[in-house]
Amino acid sequence: MTVDTQTVEKLAELARIAISKETIEEVSNRLGDVLQLVDQLQSTNTDGIAPMAHPLDEVQKLRTDAVTETDNREDFLKLAPQTEEGLYLVPKVID
Fold first, then answer.
1. Is 48 left (phi over 0), alpha (psi -120 to 50) or beta?
2. What is the pLDDT of residues 68-78, one digit of tens each?
3. Strands, E, within 1-95: which ranges?
4. How many Å apart are CA 41 and CA 34, to the nearest integer?
5. How far out from the chain centre does Cα 56 lie?
6. What share of the chain is helix, strand, coil (3-state, %, to 5)?
7. What is the rounded distance in angstroms from the CA atom of residue 78 to the CA atom of residue 88?
8. To the nearest whole number, what is the mean pLDDT of the chain?
């Protein structure tokens, strides 16, 4: 399948991308190659092949949902320059 330069220019306009005049022919050829590959994939005989949800037959390892970190809140609050009622105070940066 071929993609003409006018189609490439229209696609570039719709995608809001700039394609120089020098590369339009190359982009046209590449898009044609992609469409040819899609045609090849669609013409493949898949009779008798069961659909797959994922190409790899692996099981996701799960871990227990347990807290492993210690609570250091009070230690971190002591390091902050300014705190109030358990909150960090920061300087205003936007008026």
1. left
2. 999 999 999 99
3. 83-84, 87-88
4. 11
5. 21
6. 40, 5, 55
7. 10
8. 91
